[in-house]
Amino acid sequence: MRSVAASVLVIAMVAIGCGSEENSESGNPSKVIMDAVAKTEAARTARLSVDISITGPEGFSSSAEGVADFEHDRDLLTTMVQGKTVQTFNDGGEAYVRNGTSGPYRLFPPSEEAPVANNPTDSLKYVGTDVVDLKEIDEDGCYAGKLDFDRVLERAEKGREDELSELRGQTAPVLICVDDAGRISRYDVTIEQGPSKVEFNSTISDHGRAPALEPLGSSERPR
């Protein structure tokens, strides 16, 4: 994976709507979420906060903070994993990683990348296409649905379609919330595989107020 955190916005996110004509009807939950995606991207930037918890034989937890620059297709995430700081930077189709928050990055090893692009700026585009059975719930501005992994895997990199074959035919419960301006503000996913459960809890804030991201500087580029 590019980073544990990037599997969010996820997964905004590996990432809602059934794709049918009825999703265009006013008041339909899928239409609400698809409009929220468009408004979030129109804000150009936003801050991200992600908490990941894995329970089971190899349980651990981590958290990440960062910025998504939708206008320039970039995102920066600083993740704490088992007491260590890892920073990832995505710029278009290139992914970079470094230990700590200073010094040069290295290109993210292709062998460690997920077969489905899942950085925040990419993933948000699919929040309106990969979640089915959306329903409004009692919590104000929030909707519950199911992440359809068959839809996610349709975007798998050519030749790597079978790497996540255990997810075919599976769904995972999601919770998506929008703020008063109709933008995505929360995206939670719970995935259970065997004895393990993975919970991704993400918030999106400061829409339009987070700083835009510049390309890597000369001291940050891989050497």
Protein architecture, described:
With 223 residues, the protein is mainly beta. It is built from three helices and eleven strands, in the order H-E-E-E-E-E-E-H-E-E-H-E-E-E. The chain has one domain (5-205): outer membrane lipoprotein receptor (LolB), chain A, CATH 2.50.20.20. The protein has an eleven-stranded antiparallel beta sheet with strand order 6-5-4-3-2-1-11-10-9-8-7. The longest helix has 14 residues, at 29-42. Mean pLDDT is 82; it is low at 1-26.
Secondary structure: elements and pairs:
Blueprint: H1 29-42, E1 45-55, E2 60-69, E3 74-81, E4 84-91, E5 94-99, E6 106-107, H2 120-124, E7 131-136, E8 142-148, H3 149-153, E9 171-178, E10 184-193, E11 196-205
Give the strand tally: 11
β-sheet strand percentage: 35-45%
Helix coverage percent: 10-25%
Biggest sheet record? 11 strands, antiparallel
In whole angstroms, the N-to-C terminal distance is: 22 Å
Which architecture does the CATH hierarchy give at level 2?
A: Clam
CATH class: Mainly Beta
| General shape | globular
Write a compact overview of the structure shown.
11% of the residues lie in helices and 39% in strands.
Tags for this model:
single chain, 223 residues, mainly beta, outer membrane lipoprotein receptor (LolB), chain A, eleven-stranded antiparallel sheet, 3 helices, 11 strands, 39% strand
